[in-house]
What we know:
21% helix, six-stranded antiparallel beta sheet
Amino acid sequence: MNMEKLSGLDLMKGVLEGRIPRAPIAEIVPMKPVEVASGYIKFSAKADKRHINPLGGVHGGFAATVLDSVTGCAVHTMLEAGVGYGTLDLNIMMLKAIPLEKELVAEGRVINISKKIGVSEGTLKDDEGNLYAHATATCMIYR
């Protein structure tokens, strides 16, 4: 399948439906899309023993990776075929320690998009709605 001929939304739908493989990072930081629409994406994610820092907690890089993914993928859903993007700026606020082996929900939403810049936000929560981390991202769009 020629990925360059797919819009960002079609590519993300293909990953969600299993027709397109997930990015390799999704094996290191277990995450997968569970819902996708234009300007929006939802992932499930779960930290495991590979993500423990020297103090015994989940490394902040876990939340950072998941939030970078959902904020970027949200922007990607609004791009036409052959257009790419890259994260210019990612700001994360860690609000609670990430639990081990607990399924979390990460959501990304586009706040604004122009020809050159996409701005999005992301959240990482549990099923009860407890907020663990929040992010905003600015993405450069490559046309």
